[in-house]
Amino acid sequence: MSHEQTKEAIAKGATSLGIEFGSTRIKAVLINEHFDTIASGSYEWENLLKDGYWTYNQEDIITGMQTAYREMKQDVEQKYGITLQTIGSIGFSAMMHGYVALDRTGELLVPFRTWRNATTGVAAKELTDLLQFNIPERWSIAHLYQAILNEEEHLPRIDNLTTLAGYIHWLLTGNKAIGIGDASGIFPIDESTHNYHPTMIKQFNELIAGRGYPWTLEELLPKVYLAGEDAGTLTDAGAKLLDPAGDLQAGISLCPPEGDAGTGMVATNSVRKRTGNISVGTSVFAMIVLENELSKVYPEIDMVTTPDGSPVGMVHANNCSSDINAWIGLFREFSEAMGYEADSGKLFSVLFNKALEADPDGGGLLSYGYYSGENITGIDKGRPLFVRSPESRFNLANFMRTHLFTAFGALKIGMDILTEKEQVAIDSILAHGGLFKTPVVGQRIVAAAMNVPVSVMSTAGEGGAWGMALLASYMINKAEQESLDVFLEQKVFNDVAGEEIAPNPSDVKGFESFIERYRKGLAIEQAAVDHLVENGRD
């Protein structure tokens, strides 16, 4: 589209906006009807450990949303000389799972508890045994039941149990809505009805019946919506909350709020069966769209859905890039101490590319980037760890390769269950996230870990906010009866270029050697948890 055509599209609201609350950044992306990004804005934030729970300040949730929107709006004004007043459709996404408990007035009863908390182990195990369905520690229902087991005081006052995306959507529309992908990380979904599983709802209600709460589970949960459905309208109060300057008009349709897993699938065109995607950030997860149900329950595999309701096997590891970022920060400090200007992009590029010069297995080195507990490997607290033997080949290349390998170590353990025990077929995996900004390196590492061709699309850098904008666009621009996979395949990605890298046999063999060392070394990581005190306290 030309500059004038884009300006006209903005003026008449032929646009869609996606805002995603990621683990380290809130990002707003405005797209046109051709799915091109025409403006964006962002806000950096960090989680904090408060009173034993990983959380984000409520003030940051609102401030971050407003800042990301304001920057996007200013981007529009600077590029096109027009004040943004209306948008064709809006969608919000956020980190899945966690615990947002609201009272009747919409006040948070406890600070938002994120997916990162490993405090619900007892509840998750009891619910998995009861429902015969894997309930991970991250899931909202596990957080709720753990609060019940802990007899927390706020429980009788709950009126709305939702996710971060559902909370934002409710603030702006007044509608207790949730997209089915995000809903599948709250409570198990019945594939035949595209709603919460009724038998399991009944089992949960019976489990807590004697505790005297003035609610049943179905009364707390938001209504489930499929991709493409209208999930509410921006209210006057919502418009003022999003745009305190008062320029944005009310009445805009909002699509169902989704989780970051769903937006990752959309952003990588991975909603068809036998396709998958890997999303890399503070955590890492792989989503494989399944042809058949799994033969049994695995605690390492989450059963969730695509935004249009297809079953997905999800392997989610709590830790990925945090420790790599910390080491890069150390190298930056050294560079600055030596009097050299440290450009972040060059640091990542140089250090990542050193990994390609390493021994295939990383030279016998071992690390665990566990900033928090890791559910797949059964470690309940974070203790970043680097260890080597005197015989290890300790050099920069092996050091970097080891840290890139370990970023996908826990994920590899879960994925092996799908591919080896369940014989799940995967035609292709698409990867996205900051780790892939350095060409080739991240793809080679993931291809080695998964032993599957890995592609990074030219659109991969757009991320989940762009994926959420696509879902918002799908709601208003789809043809009658047009499915989400067809919409993405034929309209969004029909001419998008992608770079595919096949597994290198030497890399695959090297990763297998590393993962064997990784498994054996978990006892060392557990010892660090047992004996290394946190913040000077036992």
TrEMBL record:
<feature type="domain" description="Carbohydrate kinase FGGY C-terminal">
    <location>
        <begin position="277"/>
        <end position="475"/>
    </location>
</feature>
<keyword id="KW-0808">Transferase</keyword>
<feature type="domain" description="Carbohydrate kinase FGGY N-terminal">
    <location>
        <begin position="17"/>
        <end position="241"/>
    </location>
</feature>
<keyword id="KW-0418">Kinase</keyword>
<dbReference type="GO" id="GO:0004856">
    <property type="term" value="F:D-xylulokinase activity"/>
</dbReference>
<dbReference type="Pfam" id="PF02782">
    <property type="entry name" value="FGGY_C"/>
</dbReference>
<protein>
    <submittedName>
        <fullName>Xylulokinase</fullName>
        <ecNumber>2.7.1.17</ecNumber>
    </submittedName>
</protein>
<dbReference type="InterPro" id="IPR018484">
    <property type="entry name" value="FGGY_N"/>
</dbReference>
<dbReference type="InterPro" id="IPR043129">
    <property type="entry name" value="ATPase_NBD"/>
</dbReference>
<comment type="similarity">
    <text>Belongs to the FGGY kinase family.</text>
</comment>
<dbReference type="Pfam" id="PF00370">
    <property type="entry name" value="FGGY_N"/>
</dbReference>
<dbReference type="InterPro" id="IPR050406">
    <property type="entry name" value="FGGY_Carb_Kinase"/>
</dbReference>
<dbReference type="InterPro" id="IPR018485">
    <property type="entry name" value="FGGY_C"/>
</dbReference>
